Amino acid sequence: MTTSDTPTTTPPAGEPALNRAIGPKLLILFVIGDILGTGIYATTGKVAGKVGGALWLPFAIGFVVAILTAASYVELVGKYPRAAGAALYTQKAFKVPFLTFIVAFMVMASGLSSASAAARAFSGDYLSELTNDALPPTLIAILFILALAALNLRGVSESVKTNVVLTLVELTGLAIILAIGAYAVLSGDGDPGRLTDFESPDGGTGYALMTGILGATALGFFAFVGFEDSVNMAEETKDPTRTFPRAIFIGVAVTGTIYVLVALVSSLLVDYKVLEGSSGPLLEVVKAGGIDFPHKLFALIALFAVTNSALINIMMASRLCYGMANERILPRAMGRVLARRRTPVVGIVFVSLLAVGLVSTGEIEGLGDTTAFLLLCVFAVVNVAALVLRKDRVDHEHFRTPTVLPVLGAITALILASPLADRPAEVYIRAGVLVAIGVGLWAVNKVVMKARGEDGRED
Fold it and tell me: What transmembrane ranges does the database entry give (predicted)?
């Protein structure tokens, strides 16, 4: 199959198409960079607080859940290489515009809560290691988001190249953690007994321990989100039907392996209560590692890592707006492209303003858990959609995942999204408010479209 066999999306009349600037290697780095970042650098300690020293287990389980759902995304993006992602798959599978809009809004909201968590992480302990906190953390977080919005407006090529640089930096930071762990093992330092130390938040056993592990996995899953964002770059990727399977599977496998190893090193060297109390848990690992590595330099690396997470999430949310506008799920104005830079200008401005608002609604843990909860709900729908759309044949070759994987993906996503995961009520409240906002926007959009005599696309 040649590149010309790959379907493309026609942009709105009079609007330029998005620039296909992303090749196979760049996409692999993009996926890795999208997954790595805030989750592992900032929430590792909170995960430890839910499960104890056996910190590696939630990340191992999260890796399996991510692979199951990634397989469904790979099949679907190969069949429909367009920018709307989960919203497109939901509409094609179920043809219920209301459900499509809610799924799309949940994906967008998850990206923005993730970017807000990254902004909060940026203004936390890692920055405190470098500065005297001259500005309020909330103001720092807001300025941080606005700066990334400006970079996104500059162009996809600049944004993706910046992503590559930041990805290499954050990989370097995690390599430093792994090197510290290897040195500790060879030197006989650390406490291997912590690796099998399971602790529930209330000190109980049995059911409490199970819900603690599920809660830790659900929060730790925040570290794996990102691969689903990459499908929204389908219209800016060269030959997406061929490129995406390898990129997504390699990206999830590399990050999953790194996460489990980093979790092992963290528990080996630092007591889980110390990790829990820090918003910069990997800095605690560096301090306890027995290697004279500059603490300020590692803090700077961590800041680059959380910057990368926010950059990618704002970029993906804006592309989702663009895709939904082309599908008539959102008004056409949301698909407006800046002619000179060929970037979705209205989408970038819209999602950046929403991210600024979210910054003030919670801390890193709550915003991260909200991100994971919203996406777990979406992942359940996408896995079911992959099964439903098996009956829809397309005229080009594409990856097809074994049937058992979407089935297991839907089941595991629903379990982690359920109350069994022992997440705080504030997460459900925040997610509920976001969904309610989505319902309100859906109603307004329907009224506007009806007044204009427009109909949303059903396929």
Answer: 26-43, 55-77, 98-122, 134-153, 165-186, 206-227, 248-270, 297-322, 343-360, 372-389, 401-421, 427-444
* Residue 258 and residue 150 in contact, taking contact as beta carbons nearer than 8 Å: no
What is the pLDDT averaged over residues 423-438? 89
The Cα–Cα gap between 93 and 296 comes to 50
Residue 198's SS3 state is strand
pTM of the predicted model over 0.70 = yes
Which of 195-204, 212-221, 279-288, 400-409 is the least confident region? 195-204
In angstroms, the CA 259 to CA 255 distance is: 6
Q: How many CA atoms lie within 13 A of 327 on its CB side?
A: 26
Of 66, 200, 76, 98, nearest to 441 by C-alpha is 98
Q: For residue 123, which amino acid is it? A: S
Burial grade of 272 (CB within 10 A; 0-12, 13-18, 19 or more): buried
Give SS3 for 60: helix
CA-based max dimension of the chain? 73
What's residue 396's pLDDT? Answer: 79
Angle between helices 240-269 and 281-288 (to 10 degrees): 50
Between CA 334 and CA 272 the distance in angstroms is: 45
Residue 187 clears pLDDT 70, i.e. is over it: yes
Q: Which of 305, 298, 308, 306 is nearest to 129 (CA)?
A: 298
pLDDT of the residue at 158:
63
Question: How far is the C-alpha of 317 from the C-alpha of 305, rounded, in Å?
Answer: 19
Query: Which DSSP state fits 336?
Result: -
Question: Which of 158-172, 284-298, 364-378, 444-458 has the least mean pLDDT?
Answer: 444-458
Check residue 455 and report its DSSP letter: -
> What's residue 320's pLDDT?
76
Q: Is 453 helix (H, G, I), strand (E, B) or coil?
A: coil
Mean pLDDT within 377-405: 92
Token pair 């970037």 is found at 343
Rounded to the nearest integer, the mean pLDDT of the chain is: 84
Q: What does the alpha-carbon distance between residue 156 and residue 159 come to, in Å, rounded to a whole number?
A: 5
Please say whether the beta carbons of 306 and 118 come within 8 A: yes
CA distance 186 to 338: 55
Q: What is the pLDDT of residue 185?
A: 87
